[in-house]
Fold this protein.
Amino acid sequence: MKIWIGCDHAGYERKQEVIALLKERQLEVEDCGCDGERADYPVIAKAVGAAVASHSGDMGILICGTGIGMSIAANKIRGVRAALCADAFSTKYTRLPNVMCMGARTLGSGLALELVEIFLDTPFEGGRHEKRVHMITELEQEW
Ligand code: RB5
């Protein structure tokens, strides 16, 4: 499993911290930008989202100022289930996402890194959740 990660200018510093954590955990990481320069979050969300959607089992992490723009943009890509993560409980119990989005201006570093660990360590349960993923996929095809 590879982790595709991206940010806009607001999320750059937090992204560096997250990359360090992922490497500490010996995970394979691919950085889709930006490199600190002003960047439009839809461009980065597209790069990470397209990579996750075309590599089954991979996951994505997107960071902008609030995480909202990234999550809206990433969810436009078929196959992406992006969740805006801001607290431990919902990060653990969402279960369906393959992309986590976070706000660098809304979360402190400690909580953000804790949420990344929760996201990585919480397995997708399948079962009734699987059925709902299919229902989401149908929505993508219908609308
Ligand atoms: C960039 O200034 C900011 O709009 C962006 O990082 C994000 O917060 C959008 O959701």
In short: The mean pLDDT is 95.
